[in-house]
Every structure is written in structure tokens, then in C-alpha cells.
Amino acid sequence: MKKAAEIGESLFELLYLASAFTIGMVLLLTSEAPGIRMLAGSMALVLVAGDAFHLIPRIVAVKHGSAAMQKALGRGRQIASISMTLFYLFLWHIGHRVALLPANEGWTLTVYSLALVRIALCFASGNGWTAASPSFGWSIARNIPFLMLGGIVAIWYFLHRNEMVGLGHMYIAIIISFLCYLPVVVFSLKYPKIGMLMLPKSLMYLWMLVMCLSL
């Protein structure tokens, strides 16, 4: 039963990567430089690249075991953490361009500051990315600025939802993705099965990309 569940999860992850990559390529190939679709397509490919470093070792680990893939899994989580941060920077600028609103310099500075703090924390050795038991404290620390970043982007999309042609529900996808992600951050070391919440989180990212197809 456990093996079947792992295989099913691996198939889902492959389908997720393939779907996100396909959407990204469609956006890029149908864009007019330097159009919004090009920005959205680049965002999709950054997401796919980062998640691939995390998910492909997970898929390989189904056959060879997590211990054999420990370092690759750790580095993959680190790279995915950085790519998710960049994803929200893209999303911030896409929202402003779709709503035809100038980027507020103060809020944009805050968004970039939170992203830089998050990325800097991801590079800190204290995280113990490749250790058998990564640091829980560092996990919480690096996700605080990420939560704040996502919160600001979600609130901005909510406040301007009526101007967001095609992206009016983006704030919902962002909120649900974080509601799935945060329990994994807090409880997955003690309760590994809660990691299954990453599946609906991935679906929310696909929904965000699908919404961008309407741009």
C-alpha cells in the first residue's frame, strides 16, 4: 500500500512538472516581447526549474530510498525554496501590469526586501539542508518573511481583484497554497503524512498558471 501511494505521488509530481512546463512554454511562445505573457511564462519556467530539483530526487527516492538521495533532496528543497520566492516577485509585477497600475515604490521595496531576507536565510548553513534532521528553527525563520511576502501579494490581488482581468481569483489560489504549505512547515517532521498537503499546494500553483493563460 505504501509503495502504491509513493508511485501515485510520483506520477502526480511528473504530471505537475509537465503541465507547468507546458503552460510556461505556451505563454512564452504566444507572447509579444516584452509582454505580460512573457513575464508569466518566465515565472512558470522558474517555478518548474526549482521544483524539478526538489521533485525529481523524490521520485528517484521511491526506488533507491530517501537515505541514498538525502543530499539531492536537501539541495532540491533549498533551490525550490528560492524559486518559490522568485515566483512571487514575478506575480507582484504581473499583477501591476494587468491592473494597469504603477508599482507602489514603498510596497515594492518591502516585497523585494522580504524576498532578499528569505533567500539569504535559505543560504544560511544553519538550515542543515542535507542533514538527516534539518533545523526546525531555521525552517520557521526562513518561512516568516516568505509568509509575509505571500500575504502582501495576496492582499494586493484581493484589493485590486476588480481590475484583474483574468486574475480576479489569484488571491484565493495564493491563500489556499499557503494554508496547505504552512502545516507542512510546522508539523511534517513529526507527522510525515501531513506532507501530502503539498499536492493541493501544487494544484494551486497550476491554477495560478492557468489563470495567466487568459492574459
Q: Notable features of this structure?
A:
transmembrane; mainly alpha; Rhopdopsin 7-helix transmembrane proteins; transmembrane helix; 215 residues
What do these coordinates show?
Keywords: Membrane, Transmembrane, Transmembrane helix. The protein has 215 residues and is mainly alpha-helical. The protein is built from seven helices and no strands. Helix 3 packs antiparallel against helix 4, helix 4 packs antiparallel against helix 5 and helix 6 packs antiparallel against helix 7.
Radius of gyration: 17 Å
CATH hierarchy class name: Mainly Alpha
Number of distinct beta strands: 0
The SSE order reads HHHHHHH
Which geometry do the CA atoms define?
Answer: globular
Major beta sheet summary: none
Task: Give the structural class.
Answer: mainly alpha
CATH topology assignment: Rhopdopsin 7-helix transmembrane proteins
Count of spatially separate domains = 1
User: Could you tell me how far the N terminus lies from the C terminus, measured between alpha carbons in angstroms?
Assistant: 43 Å
Low-confidence stretches: none
The CATH architecture category equals Up-down Bundle
Query: How many H/I helices?
Result: 7
The average pLDDT score comes to: 92
* % residues in beta strands: under 5%
Q: Helicity level, as a percent range?
A: over 70%
